[in-house]
Specification:
Structural class of chain B: alpha+beta
Low-confidence stretches of chain B: none
Distance between the termini of chain A: 83 Å
Largest sheet of chain B: 7 strands, mixed
Number of strands of chain A: 9
Bound molecules: zinc ion
Mean pLDDT of chain A: 93
Strand content of chain A: 15-25%
Structural class of chain A: alpha+beta
Number of domains of chain A: 2
Shape of chain A: rod-shaped
CATH superfamily of the largest domain in chain A: Bira Bifunctional Protein, Domain 2
Distance between the termini of chain B: 93 Å
Radius of gyration of chain A: 42 Å
Helix content of chain A: 40-55%
Shape of chain B: elongated
Oligomer: heterodimer
Strand content of chain B: 25-35%
Order of helices and strands of chain A: HHHHHEEHEHEEHEEEHEHHH
Largest interface: A-B, 90 and 96 residues
Number of strands of chain B: 42
Number of helices of chain A: 12
Strand order of the largest sheet of chain B: 30-33-34-38-37-36-35
Chain lengths: 342, 825
């Protein structure tokens, strides 16, 4: 009695196996599971059977129906997968081909270095104060404790203009006076970036134009220990944790005491190489406590206020960090140089 | 300043080895730039002090001799030499000449080869006589180029001692900052060494033996200009014998970088190096002759305009009133502190000497040195300032050396004109002041302990106050801060603690000018442009090239002009960024086809009524070359042009929230007519953008290819940036999109059409984007079709089709009325 049902299942499974595309699959569904399909008909036949046979027949026919429906779903899914796989084969690419070119713009390395300096000092409360490139002799020298003919003026080879008393600033230090006069009597923490000029032959080591960043802190409670603290922090942020920094006595007319700041050579780690002239140390900035005459010229009473100042060259810093051997690269603007910076 | 260690040791014992000494000096501000080692490579066993005991003739050669040398060994060694300075001793039997003696196996420089080439001494036979050792020349020892004869050492040289011990030395090459003028002397350096290492300073003996008539009876001194000459000392040394100075003095001078000349000149130089006080020796008899046989009078005065004199170097010089001269009654005899005159110079026949030890104003010396271009060891020292007190010990020391080394007799006393005695500098220093500056607290005793070795006199005047008297050799100390630096130097900068700032944080202020400038850079970099930075210094001709065909007619603009340019190409401060950015583009186009660059920077515009120029910031952009590089994904596209540039400018304005930009067709000599726009914001002209004029392109060596460039006034642009902006809410109701194509006459600008559309469209029209410009059939000639994608959207409801249709109708009507537009079918 159940034998025809078994045969039907067998037949239907074989036919499903043979359905290789979505059309054949749809036809199979109509043939077996459709409204007039063979399985549907077999279910309907239940009503015509004697009551005694019905339970067994009914159980079996429902079993077959569910099984075939499940088999159909599985087959349909398999066919979908197969067809997708085929489409993907046709769509595949050589992933080693180069990507569509993006041409990103870049900042000049000096700008990048300046921004890094701004960022580090901003976190220590130093803000950017800028002043003019063409300066008076008075601002650039006299008010910085270098009266006319002061021997220290020899330290700067100056570009003079045809207007007497007007020069190209040799350092950003005149900004110290300008900042102090703007902010007096408030405490000050500023950095003074800008282009400076020196009357020098242009060589791989020296340029007529370069950026400088000075720092100036003035307050009632500022010591040389704070100068060291600030600079050591900066050097480690800029060049890496664990850098060794040393302060060496030096002379700048606008600071007293004055110190040259050296850092262990980043190229040789202090063992000595060509770049550090085999000393193991690299000079990274000049610094010192603001000279009382300069404080006074800025409007601050040196008996009450003290301060420190320091100055560094962003191009030199970039040269040290990236192993640039020729300072002339900076203003030559060769894209083959500029495009090496991220 | 070059300081031989052997000389330094005469004034201070050095308790530490050379390397730590150099390190300590460097850390204290006396930067040791190099250490020159003399004889450190000499073989201690094989190169020793020897004694030539006999010079015998060579049996087979007239131009050679046999030197028999005792060197502390068991026997006397015989060696063959051609040294001409041994010939006078040939056949004279027993002699005693101290020499540098090298034995078999010693390494020496080859005296016969050019330059310095090392060679090892091997036994040989010279004209039949075996010789396995050598008496050395200076060149063979690397002491100098001299290979004329052998080196003869002083008679007291100890035979058998390694030469390295006797003659070896190290020379510190010090790089001194201007404040360290006191260390332009061996005593000055010795004083620092003493203070830094705990050694004790020993001054050389400055006693002297004088006899006969007083100096004041033999010469007179008048200082006509005490402002420029604080002191003038003259001493008299009679009966000197000019000759070479002793070996030790010559050797020290040489190591210090000076050339020995004769005993008198060498002594003036030696004492200058020792004390830092320059000296000058005049031939006294020549002065007497010039005075017509009378007692000479030294007169220190300014030159009379046009006055002339021939200096030691044989050059006749003419002076201005700024020059300080040493004169006698007959006229100038020296340029004060700079160079002596030829006529009164010491020569081999000089018998009597007037020695000058004077003090001159450093500014005057600097001016004269610069004007005459005559830098010298003397002017270097005078030009940095010397205390007048130094003249006296230096005069005594040099006079006494002339007595001992040149067999002179010293007249009694000195003629000392000292019209302006320097007052001692006294500084009051408190412990709190030291602490306030260094962040370290020291007791008065500790402070005195740092300062006294440097010869500051310290007296406690209160529990926390020292009265510090500055020593004469220090002209750099005026303020407590100067003393605090000395304390820090001696204590050691490296021992000052490292402490973060703890002072009150100043009021924090934004720097909007910088922030906006950096934003401009960021936006342009975001548009794919590379930032460049070009020289602020340029030549007017480079900028004039931006305005072709102008020739010489137009008045050139005013420039900030450099008085001392270093290169003929960089003589003024730029007024334009565009010229230098075009130059940068041209330079790069030699290596790559595509350049898109910009610069943000200052230009310098002289202000008619101000001392200093205006320094406004400008922005220049240059874009040229293929829009796409050759690439497997790229299809061919035309070159970068006006619209690529305009897109960048539009993006910049949008990102800065600057609205109301107006691009007008414009004529500008730098740009190609018809492809140039003037950018205006309201009534303010911001600048020009366009394609560079072919003649400008040519002038800047740019290829024949479109070069789009913008030259904008960044100050004007940034002044239009609003302080803030509000965000528009995003409507939740659907937008209605509709295309609209209209035909208008060619001369109607697209911006006009767009403005009319936006006006007529009302607030519901959110956007009108031009997506097509079409010319040709069926659009009649002289007309163009402009197609816009319109976006309508209401903030509060879904728009009804009929409302949109009505708005479009209004737009069409408005366009028809205003610009004769027709709807394209
Ligand atoms: Zn190194």
């Amino acid at each position: 009695m159940l034998e025809p049902l078994n045969q039907l299942e067998e037949e239907a499974r074989a036919a499903l196996e043979a359905a290789a595309d979505p059309g054949a699959l749809a036809a199979w569904r109509t043939t077996y599971l459709g409204r007039r399909g063979k399985v549907t008909e077999a279910v309907k036949a239940l009503a015509t059977l004697p009551a005694a046979e019905r339970p067994a027949y009914g159980r079996r026919v429902n079993e077959i129906k569910e099984a075939l429906e499940a088999a159909y779903e599985a087959r349909a899914e398999a066919l979908r997968q197969a067809s997708l796989a085929q489409a993907w084969v046709a769509d595949q690419v050589d992933v080693t081909l180069p990507g569509r070119p993006i041409r990103p713009g870049r900042l000049h390395p000096s700008t990048q270095t300046l921004r890094e300096i701004y960022r580090i000092f901003a976190e220590m409360g130093f803000q950017v104060y800028r002043s003019r490139d063409v300066e008076t002799d008075e601002m650039n020298f006299t008010l910085l404790n270098m009266p006319p003919h002061h021997p220290a003026r020899d330290m700067w080879d100056t570009f003079y203009t045809t207007r007497p008393g007007v020069i190209l600033r040799t350092h950003t230090s005149p900004g110290q006076i300008r900042a102090m006069r703007d902010y007096c009597p408030e405490p000050i923490r500023v950095i003074l970036p800008g282009m400076c000029y020196r009357y020098e032959q242009i060589t791989a080591r020296s340029e007529i134009m370069f950026n400088q960043v000075e720092g100036l802190a003035v307050g009632r409670n500022i010591t040389m220990a704070n100068l060291k603290g600030t600079i050591v922090d900066f050097a480690r942020r800029m060049f890496g944790e664990g850098r060794r920094v040393r302060f060496r006595a030096s002379h700048f007319p606008f600071t007293e005491p004055s110190a040259e700041v050296d850092m262990d050579c980043i190229l040789c780690g202090g063992k000595g190489c060509r770049v550090c002239k085999y000393t193991g140390w690299l000079e990274i900035m000049g610094s010192g406590m603001v000279h009382p005459v300069v404080l006074k010229n800025g409007g601050y009473d040196p008996d009450v206020y003290s301060g420190f100042a320091f100055g560094m060259g962003p191009e030199r810093i970039a040269m040290l960090k990236h192993g640039i051997e020729d300072i002339r690269y900076f203003w030559a603007n060769d894209l083959r140089f500029l495009q090496q910076f991220g | 300043m070059k300081v031989p260690i052997s000389w330094l040791k005469e004034y201070v014992e050095i308790p530490i080895p050379l390397e730590p000494l150099a390190e300590r000096l460097t850390m204290a501000g006396l930067e040791v730039a190099a250490i020159e080692r003399i004889g450190d490579w000499w073989d201690r066993d094989r190169i020793v002090v020897g004694e030539v005991v006999e010079v015998r003739p060579h049996p087979n050669a007239d131009r050679l001799v046999l030197a028999r040398v005792a060197y502390g060994g068991p026997e006397v060694e015989e060696c063959v030499t051609g040294a001409p300075n041994l010939f006078p001793y040939k056949g004279r039997g027993r002699v005693s000449l101290k020499v540098a003696f090298a034995m078999e196996g010693a390494e020496l420089y080859d005296g016969h080869q050019e330059g310095f080439v090392k060679t090892r001494l091997k036994p040989t036979k010279i004209r039949g006589v075996p010789s396995r050792a050598m008496v050395c020349s200076e060149k063979e020892l690397g002491l100098s180029e001299d290979h004329e004869g052998i080196l003869i050492l002083p008679d007291d040289a100890p035979v058998g001692v390694p030469l390295a011990d006797y003659l070896g030395d190290a020379v510190l090459d010090l790089d001194l900052t201007p404040n360290l003028a006191r260390c332009l002397s061996v005593i000055g350096v010795a004083r620092e060494v003493a203070a830094l290492t705990g050694g004790r300073l020993r001054y050389p003996d400055t006693s002297w033996r004088t006899e006969g008539p007083p100096a004041a009876d033999l010469a007179r001194v008048q200082i006509a200009d005490p402002e420029l000459c604080a002191r003038y000392i003259a001493t008299l040394i009679r009966g000197v014998q000019i000759g070479p100075s002793p070996y030790w003095m010559q050797s020290r001078l040489r190591k210090a970088g000076m050339r020995p000349i004769n005993n008198v000149v060498d002594i003036t130089n030696y004492v200058m190096l020792e004390w830092g006080q320059p000296l000058h020796a005049f031939d006294y008899d020549k002065l007497v002759a010039r005075a017509g046989g009378d007692i000479p009078t030294i007169i220190v005065r300014r030159a009379r305009p046009g006055e002339t004199m021939t200096t030691l170097d044989g050059i006749a010089r003419t002076f201005t009133e700024d020059t300080l001269l040493i004169c006698d009654t007959a006229g100038p005899i020296a340029v004060a502190g700079v160079m002596g005159g030829l006529e009164t110079e010491i020569d081999d026949g000089t018998r009597n000497i007037l020695l000058e030890a004077a003090n001159f104003d450093f500014i005057s010396i600097r001016r004269t040195t610069q004007a005459l271009k005559l830098p010298s060891e003397a002017s270097l020292r005078f030009g940095k300032g010397i205390h007048p007190a130094l003249a006296e010990p230096a005069a005594r020391r040099a006079s006494e050396l002339m007595r001992v080394l040149a067999q002179g007799t010293l007249a009694q006393g000195m003629v000392d004109a000292y019209p302006r005695p320097a007052a001692p500098v006294v500084i009051s220093l408190t412990t709190s002041e030291v602490e306030r500056n260094l962040g370290l607290s020291f007791s008065l005793a500790e402070i005195a302990g740092f300062l006294e070795p440097l010869e500051f006199r310290c007296e406690p005047v209160a529990a926390d106050t020292l009265r510090v008297t500055v020593p004469d050799h220090r002209l750099d100390c005026q303020y407590p801060a100067d003393l605090i630096e000395e304390i820090a130097r001696v204590y050691g900068y490296d021992r000052i603690p490292v402490i973060e700032l703890a002072d009150r944080l100043p009021p924090q202020r934004a720097n909007r000018a910088l922030e906006l400038e950096e934003k401009v850079r960021d936006v342009l970099v975001g548009c794919g442009l590379q930032e460049v930075i070009t020289y602020s210094l340029t030549h007017p001709a480079r900028e004039a090239a931006l305005i072709p065909g102008q020739g010489g007619e137009a008045q050139p603009p005013a420039y900030v002009t450099i008085a001392n340019p270093i290169s003929p190409e960089r003589v003024v401060m730029r007024r334009s960024l565009l010229a230098s950015v075009l130059e940068a583009a041209a330079a790069n186009l030699r290596f790559q086809p595509r350049v898109t660059i910009f610069e943000v920077g200052k230009v310098f515009i002289p202000a008619p009524d101000a001392e200093l120029p205006d320094e406004p910031r400008r922005l220049a952009i240059v874009m040229t070359g293929p829009r796409q590089d050759r690439h497997w994904l790229a299809s061919a596209e035309p070159d970068l042009d006006f619209f690529d540039l305009k897109g960048v400018v539009e993006a910049l304005l949008e990102r800065l929230h600057v609205t109301g930009a107006c691009y007008e067709p414009a004529d500008h000599p730098s740009f190609q007519p018809g492809r140039t726009a003037r950018l205006r914001l309201g009534e303010t002209e911001i600048g020009f953008l366009g394609e560079v004029h072919p003649r400008v392109r040519e002038a800047f060596d740019l290829p024949e290819r479109r070069v789009a460039a913008a030259d904008l006034d960044l100050e004007a642009l940034l002044s239009r940036v609003p302080p803030g902006w509000r965000v528009e809410p995003i409507s939740v109701y659907p937008a209605v999109l509709q295309d609209l194509a209209v035909v208008v006459a060619e001369e109607v600008p697209a911006a006009r059409v767009r403005d009319l559309i936006l006006e007529a469209g009302g607030f519901l029209l959110k956007e009108a984007r031009l997506f097509d410009v079409y010319r040709g059939e069926p659009v009649p000639p002289g007309k163009k079709s402009l197609a816009y994608a319109l976006t309508f959207q209401a903030p509060d409801k879904t728009l009804h089709e009929a409302i949109v249709a009505r708005q479009v109708q209004r737009i069409v009507q408005r366009l028809r009325q205003e610009v004769g537009a027709e709807l394209r079918g």
